[in-house]
Specification:
It is a single chain. By secondary structure, this protein is of the alpha/beta class. It folds into two domains: 131 residues, Response regulator (Rossmann fold, 3-Layer(aba) Sandwich), CATH 3.40.50; 179 residues, Hypothetical protein af1432, CATH 1.10.3210.10. Helices cover 58% and strands 7% of the residues. The chain has 15 helices and five strands. It has a five-stranded parallel sheet with strand order 2-1-3-4-5, with helices on both faces. Helix 7 packs across helix 13, helix 13 crosses helix 14 and helix 13 crosses helix 15. The longest helix is centred in the middle third of the chain and has 50 residues. The two termini are 55 Å apart. It binds fe (ii) ion. Fe (ii) ion binds next to helix 11.
């Protein structure tokens, strides 16, 4: 903490040269002090120095201190801001406090007063940072717990039906690869990865006889199987951090022509990511042994999916996804050759 105190950055924003220099002299033995004479310059330098606290004059030409304080407050900034004023009024004091000012300094000020308020502000910053860290760690631990639990559920499904064992994991890995290749950002890739991992979690609510039937399903049984996307949606709905996965899990069996399930969405009504997942889900199902068919080759599986464009699968996107799957398939073959020459 001592090291952090000495390296803390302080920004002084005041149009009065004398005040800027006084604060610099008082604070420079303990802190790294930068000064600016106006808010515009301050906004530029904040991107570089990332201050741990700000001393801010209230009365300045162009943008005054209160306006800057409001800007910082509406941007949810956690940097403590200490207001400097020569003529404190009840009105400006209340406005400053309502907009999140950390403290007040009245000119002329004493060095001890400045050092005292700077120390308090810095401790506040550190406490806030530690709380954020704690909250983030707890959030990560909760997510990790959730995935360990769902992994156990997926293993339970795999154990019931050896034909679909590993399906979710493979679909998840391929979905993340496709999302990256389509130019999705890191968090979008993760959403698709998790959605793909959990897309069939609802099968836990489908009876064993239907799930493991070693032949084609009757109409009635198929109706029961179709419930899995809605059941999956209900399982993950209460989990806040899975919110973005919900539409993908729910709609991964919708068809482009509106003949899919559960909501018979068609065309652009189907969430984009759900359309990606449905192609990859079908590809993995076709290239794996199932109760009702032997696995198809990569080439044959792509041909079957191409035949479903405009009925089951979205045009243009499907060609793009298949081209990426083709590269993934080549890379896997290459990897196997390198491992077992
Ligand atoms: Fe499914």
């Amino acid at each position: 903490m001592e090291q952090m105190t000495k390296s803390a950055n302080i920004l002084v924003i005041d149009d009065d040269f004398g005040v800027r220099e006084s604060l610099k002299i008082i604070l420079r033995d303990k802190y790294c002090v930068s000064t600016t004479s106006n808010v515009d310059e301050a906004l530029v330098s904040m991107n570089v120095i990332r201050p741990e606290m700000i001393f801010l004059d209230i009365k300045m030409p162009k943008v005054n201190g209160l306006d800057f304080l409001r800007q910082m407050s509406s941007a949810n900034s956690t940097i403590p801001i200490i207001m400097i004023t020569a003529h404190p009024s009840i009105e400006t004091t209340i406005t400053s406090l309502r907009n999140g000012a950390f403290d007040f300094i009245v000119k002329p000020f004493q060095p001890a007063e400045i050092l005292n308020v700077a120390e308090k502000a810095l401790h506040y910053s550190i406490e806030l940072w530690e709380k954020d860290l704690l909250v983030n760690n707890l959030r990560k631990a909760a997510q990790q717990n959730f995935f360990s639990t769902t992994e156990a559920l997926l293993h339970a499904i795999d154990a019931k039906d050896s034909y679909t064992a590993g399906h979710s994991k493979r679909v998840s890995e391929l979905s993340a690869f496709v999302a990256k290749e389509l130019g999705k950002n890191e968090s979008e890739v993760e959403v698709l990865r998790y959605s793909a991992y959990l897309h069939d979690i609802g099968k836990i609510g489908v009876g064993d006889l239907v799930l493991t039937k070693p032949s084609y399903l009757t109409q009635e049984e198929f109706q029961l199987m179709k419930r899995h996307s809605e059941i999956g949606y209900k399982i993950i709905a209460p989990i806040k951090f899975m919110e973005k996965c919900l539409p993908i899990v729910r709609h991964h069996h919708e068809w482009y022509n509106g003949k899919g399930y559960p909501d018979c969405l068609q065309g652009s009504e189907i969430p984009f990511e759900a359309s990606i997942l449905s192609i990859i889900d079908a590809y993995d199902a076709l290239t794996s042994d199932r109760h009702y068919h032997k696995k198809y080759s990569h080439q044959k599986a792509c041909e079957i999916i191409m035949q479903g464009i405009n009925t089951q699968f979205v045009p243009t996107l499907t060609e793009k996804v298949l081209a990426i799957i083709d590269r993934y398939h080549d890379a896997c073959i290459q990897h196997k050759r390198t491992k077992n020459p």
